[in-house]
Specification:
By secondary structure, the protein is mainly α. It contains 16 helices and no strands. The radius of gyration is 21 Å and the shape is globular. The two termini are about 15 Å apart. This is MFS transporter.
Length: about 425
Protein backbone atom coordinates (compact mmCIF):
# COMPACT_ATOMS: atom_id res chain seq x y z
CA UNK A 1 0.00 0.00 0.00
CA UNK A 2 1.39 3.42 -0.96
CA UNK A 3 2.04 5.57 2.11
CA UNK A 4 -0.40 8.46 2.51
CA UNK A 5 -2.35 7.23 -0.52
CA UNK A 6 -5.40 9.56 -0.66
CA UNK A 7 -7.43 6.87 -2.48
CA UNK A 8 -6.40 3.90 -0.31
CA UNK A 9 -9.91 3.06 0.92
CA UNK A 10 -11.43 3.64 -2.53
CA UNK A 11 -9.37 0.76 -3.93
CA UNK A 12 -11.60 -1.65 -1.99
CA UNK A 13 -14.74 -2.61 -3.98
CA UNK A 14 -17.11 -3.19 -1.07
CA UNK A 15 -16.13 0.10 0.54
CA UNK A 16 -17.09 1.88 -2.70
CA UNK A 17 -20.48 0.16 -2.65
CA UNK A 18 -20.89 1.18 0.97
CA UNK A 19 -20.12 4.82 0.09
CA UNK A 20 -22.61 4.77 -2.77
CA UNK A 21 -25.46 3.39 -0.70
CA UNK A 22 -24.60 5.71 2.19
CA UNK A 23 -24.72 8.68 -0.18
CA UNK A 24 -28.18 7.67 -1.42
CA UNK A 25 -29.41 7.08 2.12
CA UNK A 26 -28.05 10.30 3.64
CA UNK A 27 -29.07 12.33 0.58
CA UNK A 28 -32.65 11.20 1.14
CA UNK A 29 -32.38 11.59 4.91
CA UNK A 30 -31.11 15.17 4.59
CA UNK A 31 -33.87 16.09 2.16
CA UNK A 32 -36.41 14.53 4.50
CA UNK A 33 -35.11 16.57 7.45
CA UNK A 34 -35.50 19.81 5.53
CA UNK A 35 -38.94 18.85 4.22
CA UNK A 36 -40.29 17.84 7.64
CA UNK A 37 -38.96 20.99 9.29
CA UNK A 38 -40.51 23.17 6.58
CA UNK A 39 -43.82 21.30 6.51
CA UNK A 40 -44.33 21.28 10.28
CA UNK A 41 -43.32 24.93 10.72
CA UNK A 42 -45.63 25.91 7.83
CA UNK A 43 -48.50 24.00 9.45
CA UNK A 44 -48.02 25.43 12.96
CA UNK A 45 -46.00 28.64 12.53
CA UNK A 46 -44.66 27.80 16.00
CA UNK A 47 -40.92 27.55 16.80
CA UNK A 48 -41.73 25.08 19.57
CA UNK A 49 -42.93 22.58 16.95
CA UNK A 50 -39.33 22.38 15.71
CA UNK A 51 -38.25 21.49 19.24
CA UNK A 52 -40.91 18.77 19.39
CA UNK A 53 -39.54 17.20 16.20
CA UNK A 54 -36.09 17.05 17.77
CA UNK A 55 -37.48 15.62 21.01
CA UNK A 56 -39.44 12.91 19.18
CA UNK A 57 -36.26 11.68 17.54
CA UNK A 58 -33.92 12.26 20.49
CA UNK A 59 -35.79 10.31 23.18
CA UNK A 60 -35.84 6.86 21.53
CA UNK A 61 -32.41 7.30 19.93
CA UNK A 62 -30.79 8.20 23.25
CA UNK A 63 -32.64 5.71 25.46
CA UNK A 64 -32.16 2.73 23.14
CA UNK A 65 -28.56 3.48 22.10
CA UNK A 66 -26.83 1.32 24.79
CA UNK A 67 -29.05 -1.68 24.04
CA UNK A 68 -28.61 -1.10 20.28
CA UNK A 69 -24.84 -1.23 20.71
CA UNK A 70 -25.12 -4.56 22.50
CA UNK A 71 -27.30 -5.97 19.70
CA UNK A 72 -24.96 -4.68 16.97
CA UNK A 73 -21.94 -6.36 18.56
CA UNK A 74 -23.81 -9.66 18.74
CA UNK A 75 -25.35 -9.62 15.24
CA UNK A 76 -24.08 -9.83 11.68
CA UNK A 77 -23.61 -6.24 10.48
CA UNK A 78 -24.63 -6.43 6.79
CA UNK A 79 -28.04 -7.95 7.47
CA UNK A 80 -28.67 -5.60 10.39
CA UNK A 81 -27.89 -2.62 8.15
CA UNK A 82 -30.27 -4.03 5.54
CA UNK A 83 -33.06 -4.34 8.12
CA UNK A 84 -32.55 -0.74 9.29
CA UNK A 85 -32.82 0.57 5.73
CA UNK A 86 -35.95 -1.51 5.04
CA UNK A 87 -37.66 -0.09 8.13
CA UNK A 88 -36.55 3.43 7.26
CA UNK A 89 -38.25 3.04 3.87
CA UNK A 90 -41.56 2.61 5.74
CA UNK A 91 -41.05 6.01 7.38
CA UNK A 92 -40.31 7.66 4.04
CA UNK A 93 -43.36 6.11 2.46
CA UNK A 94 -45.50 7.08 5.45
CA UNK A 95 -44.49 10.73 5.14
CA UNK A 96 -45.15 10.60 1.39
CA UNK A 97 -48.64 9.25 2.07
CA UNK A 98 -49.43 11.76 4.84
CA UNK A 99 -48.74 14.70 2.52
CA UNK A 100 -50.92 13.44 -0.32
CA UNK A 101 -53.93 15.50 -1.43
CA UNK A 102 -56.34 12.79 -0.28
CA UNK A 103 -55.02 12.76 3.29
CA UNK A 104 -54.71 16.54 3.54
CA UNK A 105 -58.31 16.96 2.35
CA UNK A 106 -59.83 14.32 4.66
CA UNK A 107 -57.69 14.50 7.80
CA UNK A 108 -57.60 17.36 10.26
CA UNK A 109 -54.34 19.23 10.69
CA UNK A 110 -53.62 17.94 14.25
CA UNK A 111 -54.02 14.34 13.09
CA UNK A 112 -51.51 14.83 10.28
CA UNK A 113 -49.13 16.67 12.61
CA UNK A 114 -49.23 13.96 15.31
CA UNK A 115 -48.76 11.27 12.66
CA UNK A 116 -45.63 13.06 11.44
CA UNK A 117 -44.37 13.22 15.02
CA UNK A 118 -45.06 9.48 15.35
CA UNK A 119 -43.02 8.64 12.26
CA UNK A 120 -40.20 10.86 13.48
CA UNK A 121 -40.29 8.96 16.80
CA UNK A 122 -40.03 5.65 14.90
CA UNK A 123 -37.10 7.15 13.02
CA UNK A 124 -35.45 7.87 16.37
CA UNK A 125 -35.67 4.17 17.24
CA UNK A 126 -33.90 3.32 13.98
CA UNK A 127 -31.28 6.01 14.57
CA UNK A 128 -30.23 4.14 17.73
CA UNK A 129 -29.24 1.17 15.52
CA UNK A 130 -28.00 2.99 12.40
CA UNK A 131 -25.04 4.71 14.06
CA UNK A 132 -23.32 1.72 15.71
CA UNK A 133 -24.10 -0.52 12.72
CA UNK A 134 -22.40 1.82 10.24
CA UNK A 135 -19.48 2.44 12.61
CA UNK A 136 -18.92 -1.31 13.01
CA UNK A 137 -19.38 -2.13 9.33
CA UNK A 138 -16.74 0.34 8.15
CA UNK A 139 -14.12 -1.42 10.29
CA UNK A 140 -14.97 -4.72 8.60
CA UNK A 141 -14.55 -3.34 5.08
CA UNK A 142 -11.00 -1.93 5.30
CA UNK A 143 -7.72 -2.87 7.09
CA UNK A 144 -6.79 -0.94 10.24
CA UNK A 145 -3.87 0.94 8.72
CA UNK A 146 -6.21 2.85 6.39
CA UNK A 147 -8.92 3.58 8.98
CA UNK A 148 -8.13 7.33 8.88
CA UNK A 149 -8.51 7.37 5.10
CA UNK A 150 -11.74 5.34 5.25
CA UNK A 151 -13.11 7.57 8.02
CA UNK A 152 -12.34 10.64 5.90
CA UNK A 153 -14.07 9.28 2.79
CA UNK A 154 -17.04 8.04 4.79
CA UNK A 155 -17.44 11.39 6.56
CA UNK A 156 -16.97 13.23 3.25
CA UNK A 157 -19.66 11.12 1.63
CA UNK A 158 -21.99 11.80 4.54
CA UNK A 159 -21.37 15.53 4.30
CA UNK A 160 -21.54 15.54 0.51
CA UNK A 161 -24.92 13.87 0.65
CA UNK A 162 -25.96 16.41 3.27
CA UNK A 163 -24.89 19.26 0.99
CA UNK A 164 -26.91 18.15 -2.01
CA UNK A 165 -29.72 16.70 0.06
CA UNK A 166 -30.28 19.91 2.01
CA UNK A 167 -29.90 22.06 -1.10
CA UNK A 168 -32.23 19.91 -3.20
CA UNK A 169 -34.70 19.64 -0.33
CA UNK A 170 -35.18 23.39 -0.20
CA UNK A 171 -35.32 23.85 -3.97
CA UNK A 172 -37.59 20.86 -4.60
CA UNK A 173 -40.12 22.14 -2.06
CA UNK A 174 -40.31 25.32 -4.13
CA UNK A 175 -40.37 23.54 -7.50
CA UNK A 176 -42.51 20.40 -7.06
CA UNK A 177 -43.93 20.68 -3.55
CA UNK A 178 -43.54 18.69 -0.34
CA UNK A 179 -45.45 15.57 -1.45
CA UNK A 180 -43.48 14.84 -4.62
CA UNK A 181 -40.19 15.66 -2.88
CA UNK A 182 -40.99 12.97 -0.31
CA UNK A 183 -41.68 10.56 -3.18
CA UNK A 184 -38.15 11.12 -4.48
CA UNK A 185 -36.80 10.49 -0.99
CA UNK A 186 -38.59 7.13 -0.85
CA UNK A 187 -36.99 6.10 -4.17
CA UNK A 188 -33.53 7.02 -2.86
CA UNK A 189 -34.03 4.85 0.21
CA UNK A 190 -35.05 1.91 -1.98
CA UNK A 191 -31.89 2.39 -4.08
CA UNK A 192 -29.82 2.18 -0.90
CA UNK A 193 -31.69 -0.98 0.10
CA UNK A 194 -30.87 -2.62 -3.25
CA UNK A 195 -27.17 -1.71 -3.01
CA UNK A 196 -26.67 -3.27 0.42
CA UNK A 197 -27.16 -6.73 -1.14
CA UNK A 198 -23.84 -6.22 -2.97
CA UNK A 199 -21.95 -6.32 0.33
CA UNK A 200 -21.15 -9.79 1.69
CA UNK A 201 -21.97 -10.90 5.22
CA UNK A 202 -19.30 -10.11 7.81
CA UNK A 203 -17.95 -12.09 10.79
CA UNK A 204 -19.17 -11.34 14.31
CA UNK A 205 -16.11 -10.26 16.31
CA UNK A 206 -17.65 -9.99 19.77
CA UNK A 207 -16.18 -12.77 21.96
CA UNK A 208 -18.25 -12.16 25.09
CA UNK A 209 -20.94 -14.69 24.22
CA UNK A 210 -21.65 -15.37 27.90
CA UNK A 211 -22.03 -11.71 28.80
CA UNK A 212 -25.39 -10.59 30.10
CA UNK A 213 -26.93 -7.50 28.56
CA UNK A 214 -26.07 -5.56 31.73
CA UNK A 215 -22.42 -6.68 31.65
CA UNK A 216 -22.16 -5.89 27.95
CA UNK A 217 -23.54 -2.38 28.35
CA UNK A 218 -21.32 -1.72 31.37
CA UNK A 219 -18.20 -2.81 29.45
CA UNK A 220 -18.90 -0.38 26.61
CA UNK A 221 -19.63 2.57 28.90
CA UNK A 222 -16.62 1.80 31.11
CA UNK A 223 -14.28 1.81 28.11
CA UNK A 224 -15.50 5.21 26.92
CA UNK A 225 -15.53 6.92 30.32
CA UNK A 226 -12.09 5.54 31.28
CA UNK A 227 -10.40 6.74 28.08
CA UNK A 228 -9.80 10.49 28.43
CA UNK A 229 -9.05 10.95 24.74
CA UNK A 230 -12.25 9.25 23.53
CA UNK A 231 -14.37 10.87 26.24
CA UNK A 232 -12.89 14.31 25.57
CA UNK A 233 -13.42 14.07 21.81
CA UNK A 234 -17.04 12.95 22.22
CA UNK A 235 -17.76 15.64 24.81
CA UNK A 236 -16.37 18.41 22.60
CA UNK A 237 -18.41 17.37 19.60
CA UNK A 238 -21.54 16.89 21.70
CA UNK A 239 -21.32 20.41 23.14
CA UNK A 240 -20.65 21.91 19.70
CA UNK A 241 -23.71 20.17 18.23
CA UNK A 242 -25.94 20.62 21.28
CA UNK A 243 -25.34 24.32 21.92
CA UNK A 244 -23.34 25.61 18.95
CA UNK A 245 -25.46 24.12 16.18
CA UNK A 246 -28.46 25.96 14.77
CA UNK A 247 -29.58 23.68 11.92
CA UNK A 248 -32.96 23.01 13.52
CA UNK A 249 -33.89 26.70 13.41
CA UNK A 250 -32.45 27.52 9.99
CA UNK A 251 -36.10 27.58 8.91
CA UNK A 252 -36.70 30.53 11.26
CA UNK A 253 -33.69 32.41 9.88
CA UNK A 254 -34.63 31.69 6.26
CA UNK A 255 -38.29 32.61 6.68
CA UNK A 256 -38.38 35.35 9.33
CA UNK A 257 -34.92 36.98 9.57
CA UNK A 258 -33.24 36.71 6.17
CA UNK A 259 -36.50 36.60 4.15
CA UNK A 260 -34.98 33.96 1.88
CA UNK A 261 -37.81 31.40 1.62
CA UNK A 262 -37.37 27.65 1.03
CA UNK A 263 -34.55 28.19 -1.47
CA UNK A 264 -32.69 30.21 1.13
CA UNK A 265 -33.24 27.38 3.64
CA UNK A 266 -31.60 24.95 1.23
CA UNK A 267 -28.68 27.35 0.67
CA UNK A 268 -28.08 27.81 4.41
CA UNK A 269 -28.00 24.06 4.99
CA UNK A 270 -25.79 23.52 1.96
CA UNK A 271 -23.33 26.27 2.98
CA UNK A 272 -22.60 24.55 6.28
CA UNK A 273 -22.21 21.12 4.71
CA UNK A 274 -20.19 22.28 1.68
CA UNK A 275 -17.52 23.79 3.92
CA UNK A 276 -17.26 20.47 5.72
CA UNK A 277 -16.99 18.28 2.65
CA UNK A 278 -14.34 20.44 0.96
CA UNK A 279 -12.24 20.32 4.11
CA UNK A 280 -12.66 16.57 4.50
CA UNK A 281 -11.68 15.94 0.89
CA UNK A 282 -8.59 18.09 1.47
CA UNK A 283 -7.62 15.89 4.43
CA UNK A 284 -7.31 12.86 2.11
CA UNK A 285 -4.30 14.66 0.61
CA UNK A 286 -3.17 16.51 3.74
CA UNK A 287 -3.46 14.09 6.71
CA UNK A 288 -4.36 15.69 10.03
CA UNK A 289 -3.06 12.87 12.23
CA UNK A 290 -0.15 14.93 13.64
CA UNK A 291 -0.89 17.18 16.64
CA UNK A 292 -4.41 15.78 16.42
CA UNK A 293 -5.64 17.01 19.79
CA UNK A 294 -4.68 20.64 19.20
CA UNK A 295 -6.33 20.59 15.77
CA UNK A 296 -9.54 19.23 17.28
CA UNK A 297 -9.65 21.97 19.95
CA UNK A 298 -8.91 24.75 17.45
CA UNK A 299 -11.52 23.51 14.97
CA UNK A 300 -14.36 23.41 17.50
CA UNK A 301 -13.34 26.81 18.90
CA UNK A 302 -13.49 28.22 15.36
CA UNK A 303 -16.90 26.62 14.86
CA UNK A 304 -18.22 28.39 17.96
CA UNK A 305 -16.94 31.78 16.75
CA UNK A 306 -18.62 31.31 13.36
CA UNK A 307 -21.96 30.48 14.95
CA UNK A 308 -21.83 33.64 17.07
CA UNK A 309 -21.32 35.70 13.90
CA UNK A 310 -24.13 33.82 12.13
CA UNK A 311 -26.53 34.55 14.97
CA UNK A 312 -25.75 38.26 14.76
CA UNK A 313 -25.99 38.45 10.95
CA UNK A 314 -29.02 39.85 9.15
CA UNK A 315 -27.42 39.68 5.69
CA UNK A 316 -27.88 36.57 3.55
CA UNK A 317 -24.37 36.69 2.02
CA UNK A 318 -22.70 37.07 5.43
CA UNK A 319 -24.80 34.24 6.90
CA UNK A 320 -23.88 31.91 4.03
CA UNK A 321 -20.18 32.81 4.24
CA UNK A 322 -20.11 32.33 8.00
CA UNK A 323 -21.82 28.95 7.76
CA UNK A 324 -19.34 27.87 5.09
CA UNK A 325 -16.40 28.51 7.44
CA UNK A 326 -18.31 26.89 10.31
CA UNK A 327 -18.52 23.85 8.03
CA UNK A 328 -14.78 23.99 7.39
CA UNK A 329 -14.07 23.76 11.12
CA UNK A 330 -16.77 21.11 11.55
CA UNK A 331 -15.18 19.01 8.81
CA UNK A 332 -11.85 18.92 10.63
CA UNK A 333 -13.44 17.97 13.95
CA UNK A 334 -15.56 15.24 12.35
CA UNK A 335 -12.61 13.54 10.63
CA UNK A 336 -10.50 13.74 13.79
CA UNK A 337 -13.26 12.32 16.00
CA UNK A 338 -14.06 9.43 13.65
CA UNK A 339 -10.36 8.59 13.31
CA UNK A 340 -9.90 8.62 17.09
CA UNK A 341 -12.85 6.26 17.57
CA UNK A 342 -11.81 3.85 14.82
CA UNK A 343 -8.21 3.59 16.06
CA UNK A 344 -8.93 3.51 19.79
CA UNK A 345 -11.92 1.11 19.83
CA UNK A 346 -11.38 -2.67 20.28
CA UNK A 347 -12.97 -4.74 17.51
CA UNK A 348 -15.23 -6.67 19.88
CA UNK A 349 -16.99 -3.59 21.23
CA UNK A 350 -17.37 -1.35 18.18
CA UNK A 351 -21.15 -1.57 18.34
CA UNK A 352 -21.27 -0.42 21.94
CA UNK A 353 -18.75 2.38 21.46
CA UNK A 354 -20.58 3.42 18.30
CA UNK A 355 -23.77 3.50 20.37
CA UNK A 356 -22.16 5.72 23.00
CA UNK A 357 -20.98 7.95 20.16
CA UNK A 358 -24.59 8.12 18.97
CA UNK A 359 -25.69 9.08 22.47
CA UNK A 360 -23.08 11.83 22.72
CA UNK A 361 -23.13 13.19 19.19
CA UNK A 362 -25.90 11.64 17.08
CA UNK A 363 -28.60 12.16 19.68
CA UNK A 364 -27.28 15.62 20.49
CA UNK A 365 -28.45 16.65 17.02
CA UNK A 366 -32.01 15.97 18.08
CA UNK A 367 -31.53 17.31 21.62
CA UNK A 368 -29.85 20.33 20.05
CA UNK A 369 -33.00 20.81 17.98
CA UNK A 370 -35.00 20.83 21.21
CA UNK A 371 -32.57 23.29 22.82
CA UNK A 372 -32.55 25.53 19.73
CA UNK A 373 -36.33 25.54 19.42
CA UNK A 374 -36.93 26.32 23.10
CA UNK A 375 -34.14 28.92 23.27
CA UNK A 376 -35.37 30.57 20.06
CA UNK A 377 -38.83 30.90 21.51
CA UNK A 378 -37.55 32.36 24.80
CA UNK A 379 -34.70 34.59 23.59
CA UNK A 380 -35.36 34.85 19.86
CA UNK A 381 -33.40 32.90 17.25
CA UNK A 382 -30.40 35.29 16.88
CA UNK A 383 -29.64 35.53 20.60
CA UNK A 384 -30.20 31.78 21.08
CA UNK A 385 -27.54 30.98 18.46
CA UNK A 386 -25.05 33.51 19.88
CA UNK A 387 -25.49 32.13 23.41
CA UNK A 388 -24.92 28.60 22.10
CA UNK A 389 -21.74 29.64 20.33
CA UNK A 390 -20.46 31.30 23.52
CA UNK A 391 -21.10 28.15 25.58
CA UNK A 392 -19.14 26.16 22.97
CA UNK A 393 -16.12 28.47 23.36
CA UNK A 394 -16.19 28.15 27.15
CA UNK A 395 -16.33 24.34 27.06
CA UNK A 396 -13.47 24.12 24.54
CA UNK A 397 -11.32 26.32 26.77
CA UNK A 398 -12.06 24.23 29.88
CA UNK A 399 -11.41 20.86 28.19
CA UNK A 400 -8.28 22.21 26.52
CA UNK A 401 -6.83 23.11 29.91
CA UNK A 402 -8.08 20.11 31.92
CA UNK A 403 -7.66 17.21 29.44
CA UNK A 404 -3.91 16.89 28.83
CA UNK A 405 -4.04 13.48 27.01
CA UNK A 406 -6.45 14.92 24.44
CA UNK A 407 -4.52 18.18 24.10
CA UNK A 408 -1.26 16.30 23.40
CA UNK A 409 -2.81 13.56 21.22
CA UNK A 410 -0.83 12.56 18.11
CA UNK A 411 -2.55 9.80 16.11
CA UNK A 412 0.38 9.31 13.76
CA UNK A 413 2.02 7.08 16.38
CA UNK A 414 -1.09 4.86 16.60
CA UNK A 415 -1.21 4.50 12.82
CA UNK A 416 2.45 3.47 12.67
CA UNK A 417 1.83 0.85 15.37
CA UNK A 418 -1.08 -0.65 13.42
CA UNK A 419 1.06 -0.79 10.27
CA UNK A 420 3.74 -2.74 12.16
CA UNK A 421 1.15 -5.14 13.59
CA UNK A 422 -0.30 -5.89 10.13
CA UNK A 423 3.19 -6.41 8.67
CA UNK A 424 3.89 -8.99 11.38
CA UNK A 425 0.60 -10.82 10.62
CA UNK A 426 1.42 -10.91 6.90
Amino acid sequence: MVKNDPFAALRIKEFNIFLLLRFALVFGWSMQFVVIEWQVYSMTNDKLSLAIIGLCEFLPAFCLAPFAGHVVDKKEKRNLFMLCIALFSLISFGLFWLTSDKIESTWKMPSILYSIYGLVFFGGILRAFFGPTIFSLIALLVPKKIYPNAATWSSSTWKGASVFGALCGGFLIAWIGVHHTLGIIFLLVMIAFALVFLITKKPILNKGNKETVKESLKAGLTFVFNDKVVLGALTLDMIAVLFGGAVAIFTVFAKDILDAGPKGLGILNAALSSGSILTMLATTYIPITKNTGKKLLISIFGFGVCMIIFGASKLMWLSVLTLFFAGVFDGVSMVVRQTILQLKTPDDMRGRVGAVNSMFVGSSNELGAVESGVAARIFGAPLAVMLGGTITLIVVAVIGVKNKPLRELDLQKDIEEHEKEEEVVV
